[in-house]
Design goal:
Structural class: alpha/beta
Number of helices: 18
Shape: elongated
Distance between the termini: 82 Å
Helix content: 25-40%
Largest sheet: 9 strands, mixed
CATH topology of the largest domain: Rossmann fold
CATH superfamily of the largest domain: Vaccinia Virus protein VP39
CATH architecture of the largest domain: 3-Layer(aba) Sandwich
Number of strands: 16
Strand content: 15-25%
């Protein structure tokens, strides 16, 4: 094949019949404007037929050149037989996905050329400070034009932001480069606006805390007894194997919530929104294989979940999940029922009673090695022999004796435990947003649960100093309760907003913890502790 690039007379150039047949008319105003300003950067691809050069790629540039009354056009001559023309058209229309860095480089090249435009205001192409105001004859600013020229699959404002992230990383020190913002955008782990949030928070923290400060919006934040990861729980490599004592979590329910995308893998469907129950169950079981590796042999996994329906039909999510979890190596120790005393009516009921409970599934690794503590006052008939406490099982309400209940959570926990009546059934109100109003009144989450729900799992399967994991951290309820009970905690969540809220919540909790002795006194009121367990807890 012979390659030859040169300038051909415009009246000697025409469309190849195949190209003429498939070409669709386009709006060429932007291309026309840029070809006025910029020398022809890319040659038109042609084959020679007789005295004419016939175009097989670059028709739009040819059309604009004719409108601009150019005399010549840069062409690249290919020596191709007719039976290879169609193949060449297909090949040239295949576009390999550019990397984020390649996209930025192409954009910077075009923006640099466009930025050199001079002349009257009506011909100005704008700059990044113009907030998408429309200038120029084409009715677009230069970022819009650059997007069209390079074929960027994003808006002009997104391109601006992406270049700002690249510039921040390019000029940053080793700490900034360690954020790997561009790499996370490339992998789909982070969106452009989330990277900008990291940049903004980093700059603000520098102003407030000095040159050695780290941003709160980083992927990982740590306190004295907590670690929070703004990343998917599908990779738990940050956690040593067999180091977790108990996992208490609530996965996305099947086909019930559309959560914020956050930093999840955008190439995969959002977990919970799989098309079939089987696909949902398979995903959840696969995620918990990772949890299995991190649990101690004596450890437990508690999963808060509920039924899902397809119209009038129960999808059997809970039943299928239990079966597949057991097949993958787990043992089902118990199904606990969370009976909601204030369940709200649902509009989607169809020929069935209103559901008033959810399940807490208790899975274990080894029945012989399971660490489990029993209640002192748990009777065979399931009746507590203590006085019924306050019906309010909230966590965060104002109390007469305390200005902020985060300081004395054990009062609320004691009330909740005192009011329970039946083995295997927990009576508790559904979630009330007043639980979190003292932390951030503006924060909302799609599917929170009250703080009393993880209380029993934590008390029964861990002791002070143990580590509790929540792989769907959300409002950080499980980790907050565990932290208040003297445990160490680890949380994962892909939603950056929830991640930042969780950091704020746990920081406040850690600043207002009860003493270990207060926790021990509380536990000893309800939980059996043998002498060895008492020593370990102390």
């Amino acid at each position: 094949m012979v390659n030859n690039i040169f300038y051909a007379e415009l009246d000697k150039i025409q469309l190849h019949p195949i190209t003429e047949k498939v070409y669709k008319t386009k709006n060429l105003e932007v291309l026309k404007l840029t070809m006025k300003m910029i020398p022809q950067l890319v040659a038109v691809i042609v084959v020679q037929r007789g005295e004419f050069y016939q175009i097989i790629d670059g028709v739009s540039r040819f059309m604009v050149a004719k409108e601009l009354k150019w005399k010549t056009l840069k062409v690249e001559l290919l020596d191709l037989p007719e039976n290879k023309i169609q193949d060449q058209l297909v090949i040239r229309n295949l576009r390999t996905k550019r990397s984020i860095h390649e996209l930025c480089n192409h954009a910077e090249l075009i923006l640099g050329i466009l930025g050199k435009s001079q002349g009257k205001r009506r011909l100005m192409l704008g700059d990044s400070s113009l907030n998408n105001e429309m200038y120029s004859c084409a009715g677009k600013d230069r970022f819009d034009i650059a997007c069209e020229i390079i074929g960027a699959d994003m808006s002009a404002s997104s391109l601006r932001r992406l270049l700002e992230v690249k510039e921040f990383e390019k000029k940053g020190d080793n700490v900034i480069k360690g954020f790997e913002l561009m790499e996370k955008i490339e992998k789909g782990e982070m969106k452009i606006h989330q990277a900008l949030n990291v940049i903004t928070n980093y700059r603000n923290s520098k102003k407030e805390q000095g040159s050695n400060a780290l941003t709160e919006a980083m992927e990982v934040v740590k306190g004295k007894n907590y670690q929070l990861f703004n990343k998917s729980c599908e990779n738990l490599n940050d956690i040593p194997d067999e180091s977790i004592d108990s996992t208490v979590t609530s996965p996305p329910y099947f086909q019930q919530r559309d959560y914020p995308d956050g930093v999840r893998d955008m190439e995969q469907p959002q977990h919970g929104m799989e098309r079939t129950v089987d696909a949902y169950v398979e995903k959840e079981v696969d995620i918990n294989r990772g949890v299995y590796k991190k649990l101690k042999k004596s450890g437990s996994l508690f999963m808060v979940i509920t039924d899902s329906y397809d119209g009038q039909v129960n999808c059997l999510v809970v039943e299928k999940l239990i079966i597949e979890m057991v097949k993958s190596g787990w043992f089902l120790n118990q199904k606990i029922y969370w009976l909601k005393d204030n369940q709200k009516p649902q509009n989607d009921r169809a020929n069935r009673l209103m559901p008033t409970y959810e399940y807490i599934l208790h899975f274990i690794k080894d029945p012989k090695l399971l660490f489990y503590r029993e209640f002192k006052i748990w009777k065979e008939d399931g009746i507590y022999e203590v006085g019924r406490g306050s019906k309010d099982s909230g966590f965060g309400h104002k109390m007469k004796t305390h200005t902020w209940t985060l300081k004395k959570p054990l009062v609320r926990f004691r009330n909740f435990l005192s009011e329970q009546r039946v083995n295997q059934v927990l009576h508790a109100n559904g979630f009330n947003w007043t639980e979190l109003k003292d932390i951030d009144p503006a924060f909302r989450h799609m599917a929170p649960y009250p703080s009393v729900i993880p209380l029993l799992p934590i008390l029964l399967t861990t002791k002070i100093g143990d580590t509790v994991l929540d792989i769907y951290n959300g409002t950080s309820t499980t980790t907050a309760v565990a932290l208040q009970l003297g445990r160490k905690v680890i949380g994962y969540d892909t939603d950056t907003v929830s991640h930042e809220f969780a950091e704020k919540r746990l920081r406040m909790v850690e600043e207002n913890l009860p003493t270990n002795q207060e926790v021990l006194d509380f536990e000893n009121e309800f939980i059996k502790n043998n002498e060895e367990q008492d020593k370990m807890a102390a």
